[in-house]
Design brief:
By secondary structure, this protein is an alpha/beta fold. The chain has one domain: Class I glutamine amidotransferase (GATase) domain (Rossmann fold), CATH 3.40.50. The chain has eight helices and nine strands. Strands 2-1-3-4-9-8-7-5-6 form a nine-stranded mixed β-sheet, sandwiched between helices. A hairpin with a 2-residue loop joins strand 8 and strand 9. Helix 1 runs parallel beside helix 7, helix 3 packs across helix 4 and helix 5 packs across helix 7. The protein is globular and about 45 Å long. The N and C termini lie far apart (about 35 Å).
Length: about 240
């Protein structure tokens, strides 16, 4: 029977993209759940009934334009999603959190999330101490917040601006976006109505050009990342004890 992965679409502009393709290549059946659909973007304060995570082998909370600590949302769907993530981990379901999803995962495990003094947009170098889980690279970033390491978690990737990846049990939290392709980047550029790109002194055409250069190798490294994450789930605590 094929393994099951559920992607949580926290924002309609942040799809699974290459990450969904990579899990499909690994033999998973793909399911998605819209937490905030396009019709709710203007007013994302809403109650959400999340699926039972025990019906899946892996849960992947994806990115979002909002903050985990947003008081409008913290007691509605963000609280519900944190509860779902904790239920998944308690049941032995793997969780791979991406950007906002990685921040939410960190918060679920007892870490904190706050505004970053040095936000990142574009391709940034990431240094890894566990290349079998998170290969070194440039990885694509689009975040103004960052997380602190949860108690008992192991930092496995970083740069000068933020912790970029951590692992704890069957949880892998990422600050960067391994899923992006050219279409996703183009969609984020188009959705940048508040001028985040210009705020950091960047130009859309430079982001497009760099993405064309990097995306093929990033896709190769994404396959290694997913393979490493699945190996983490298969090997459990024995693999975690070897980290650090």
């Amino acid at each position: 029977m094929p393994r099951q992965v559920l992607f949580l679409y926290n924002d309609p502009t942040a799809p699974a993209a290459l990450l969904g393709e990579t899990f499909a290549e690994a033999g998973f059946d793909i399911s998605t759940f819209d937490v905030i659909g396009s019709e709710h973007v203007a007013d994302p304060v809403r109650d959400v009934s999340f699926p039972d995570p025990t019906h899946y082998d892996v849960i992947v909370p994806l990115g979002a334009r909002w903050s985990v600590y947003d008081e409008r949302l913290a007691h509605s769907w963000i609280a519900g999603e944190i509860e779902m993530v904790n239920a998944a981990l308690t049941a032995g379901v793997g969780v791979l959190g991406v950007c906002f999803g990685g921040q939410l995962l960190a918060a679920a495990l007892g870490g904190t999330v706050a505004r970053s003094p040095e936000p990142e947009i574009g391709w940034h170098e990431v240094r890894s101490s566990e290349a079998s889980l998170v290969p070194d690279g440039p990885w694509f970033q689009w975040h103004f917040d960052r997380f602190t390491l949860p108690p008992g978690a192991v930092e496995i990737a970083r740069n000068e601006r933020a912790t970029q990846a951590f692992v704890k049990g069957g949880a892998l939290g990422l600050q960067f976006h391994p899923e992006v392709d050219s279409d996703v980047v183009e969609g984020w550029i188009a959705a940048d109505t508040t001028g985040e790109i210009a705020e950091l002194g960047l130009r859309p055409d430079d982001l497009r050009a760099r993405t064309e250069i990097e995306v093929d190798d990033a896709t190769r490294r994404l396959r290694l990342l997913v393979r490493g994450f699945l190996g983490l789930l298969n090997n459990g605590d024995d693999h975690l004890d070897s980290l650090g």
